[in-house]
Amino acid sequence: MKNLAILISGGGSNLQSIIDSTKNGVLKDIAKVVVVISDNPSAYGLERAKKENIKAVAFDYKNMDKKAYNAEVYKTIKESKADIICLAGYLKKIPENIVNEYKSKILNIHPALLPNFGGKGMYGHFVHEAVVKAKEKKSGATVHFADENYDTGNIIIQKEVPVYETDTADDVAKRVLVVEHEIFPKAIKKVIESEV
Ligand code: GRF
User: Fold this and answer.
1) Relative to the CA of 141, which ligand 1 atom is closest?
2) Which of 4, 73, 91, 93 holds its CA 20 to 30 A away from the CA of 61?
3) Ligand 1 geometric centre to CA of 196 (Å)
4) Residues 107, 153: contact at Cβ < 8 Å?
């Protein structure tokens, strides 16, 4: 059984899909969420964790020294004995010491078909607005190994969705989120079963 540490910044719907998958999905009997960490004390994802009796901690990134913030995140991950770190709608960079210690054990989900529509400033709604503005015919989601940069690192799984001419950024976001919830647990399973 592998221990998962999940880092979040917002609503936590990807966190929920991972938790649900450990209960009755592809991650059943192979993985367990042991801690949820957020840079945002009012992230709704923390409530989701508490409802599941999972340890949930927040460090107020905005009001903390960055070094102190990263030290707290590192200490919490170590104490949780996590084997794998999942960035589930987590908007902060991962410091080098964590990247080095957890090489090929940090997975990030991005709501687009990387390497397109990724990088600094490309998160959440900004991604879908850029996809619609570019008149793309398809979009999708990507789970990749995270490194010390934004949205780079080897891709583990991607899945496409169509984009229609009449789509708004909201339409695309909704369609992509469904795919995110499907591929994140599958990607974690692939890494655990070291198919990658
Ligand atoms: C998702 O599209 C995720 O990729 C992005 O923010 C959206 C919401 O994520 N970063 P969640 O509901 O907080 O998992």
Assistant:
1) 4
2) 4
3) 24
4) no
Q: Which atom of ligand 1 is nearest to the CA of 173?
A: 2
Question: For the chain, how many structural domains are there in total?
Answer: 1
d(CA 107, CA 109): 7
Flag whether 77 is in a domain: yes
C-alpha 109 to ligand 1 mean position (Å): 8
pLDDT tens digit sequence for 95-138: 999 999 999 999 999 999 999 999 989 999 999 999 999 999 99
Secondary structure (3-state) at 54:
coil
Residue 43 lies in a domain: yes
Q: Which residues are catalytic?
A: 110
Residues of the chain below pLDDT 50:
none
- Is residue 170 in a domain? no
Which pairs from 65-69 meet CB under 8 Å and 24+ separation? 69/39
* Residues 6 or more apart whose Cβ sits within 8 Å of residue 121: none
**What residues line ligand 1, using a CB cutoff of 6 Å?**
8, 10-15, 45, 88-89, 109, 111, 123-124, 177, 180
Q: For residue 71, what pLDDT is reported?
A: 98
Atom of ligand 1 nearest to the CA of 88: 14
The domain that holds 104 is classified in CATH as 3.40.50.170
